[in-house]
Amino acid sequence: MKTTNTLVAAVGLLFAGCAGESTVPPMTTTVRDSAAITIVENSIDTARARAGWAIDSVPTLIIGGLDAPEDQQLFQVRGGRRLPDGRIVVMDGGSGELRIYDATRELVRKHGRKGEGPGEFMEARLVGGVGGDTLIVYDSRLRRVSHLHADDGFIRSYQIGAEGGGYPVAIGITSDGGLAVGGGMRFSSDEGFPSGAVRPNSRYVTLAPDGSVRGDWGEVPAREMFARVGPGSFNVSSLPFGRATVAAAAPDRLWLGTGDAWEINVYTLDAALTRIVRFDRTQERVTDELRAAALEEQLEDAADDAAEQSIRSQFRDMPSPDLVPPYQVMTIDALDHVWIGEYVLPGETVRNYTIVDAEGRAAGRITLPPRTSPLDIGADYLLGLTRDDLDVEQLTLWRLTRP
After folding, report:
1. Per-residue model confidence as pLDDT tens digits over 306-350
2. Spatial distance between the Cα atoms of 362 and 41, rounded to a whole number of angstroms
3. Strands 179-182 and 201-207
4. What SS3 state is found at 16?
């Protein structure tokens, strides 16, 4: 059976007609079934697909920055969220505090601190919230999920098992307050340290609200890296143009892509594959110019001549992938649209996002402000983490316009 997404095509024709451009729509989607799995194939004109999507050039609220008051100084932000009443919640990893600011940027509450006791955090991330004011924080080092009330603080916590391997990363929460984790990697001298380009596996699981395993994806390729083994040493670093697995949790499903192609798989929370979302996009080739730009970008972090020589030496040993990966990150907004963050080339400071709806049909494309990563995307706003030229962190709130 084969059907065409005529709604998207019709909207695309409207945009094209208004602009006086080609009558070919900027986005078309074809949906078909194959062995009980839905195949969604999208064709996107990356330039014209931006119609209707926009972010204001100036944020409506900024918290933090080099000259901000002490109670607004942020370091190692690990998650943020805008509450229904407009307050802003942020997990500050440097202090271990869950902070709450009002619309005037005043710090009105803070919960937690560095530690291992109830309501304390070591490597925590604010994953999201349920029921309006109940916030869910996941601590990867302690393997602990904590629930906190925005006003009253700590409610309860529970441990999870060894799911995900290494320090498993929190991906998102499900409709009943469960959790999806994965992406953790582990290297052991007992198994022998790898050398060269490596892409270790990671385990992805969804957990019920009590911490029990609901769905298990088994071993999934994680991030592609470069490993070096020396006398009494083992070092792992990022591989320029290396592939990365991305995942995002919607209330009732998990989106997961391995970065091998412009393709994302959609699963039920108990790990059953139900949908494959594909894009008619060509991956850029890794040229000598791109590789040289990647080296220059790494050299910017060299503290002295010795560090520069070490970076150059390691870079010479690194293999070069043939193709630029299609994407690097993924997140889901309040309307269940999936934002697929495309690969940022060396020297660039902005990231483009391809957006699809809850069924995987192309919805548009947008470019975020420079050095900005989304933390929480609502119907008409985007809460982001923005870094300035000195890498100082700020929370920024932007007005978002949808088609």
Report:
1. 999 989 998 998 998 999 999 999 999 999 999 999 999 999 999
2. 9
3. antiparallel
4. helix
Model confidence over 280-315: pLDDT tens digits?
A: 999 999 999 999 999 999 999 889 999 999 899 989
**Is 177 in a helix, a strand, or coil?**
coil
Two tokens at 23? 């009558």
Among 25-34, 104-113, 175-184, 266-275, the minimum mean pLDDT is found in 175-184
Q: Which residues of 5-33 are buried (b: 16+ CB within 10 A; e: fewer)?
A: beebbebbeebbeeeeeeeebbbbbbbee
Contact yes or no for 246/259 (Cβ under 8 A): yes
C-alpha 351, offset from chain centre: 12
This prediction's pTM: 0.91
Place of tokens 């391995």: 258
Q: Of 48, 55, 50, 44, which is closest to residue 17 (Cα–Cα)?
A: 48
The per-residue DSSP string of 308-346 comes to HHHHHHHHHHS---SB--SEEEEEE-TTS-EEEEEPPPT
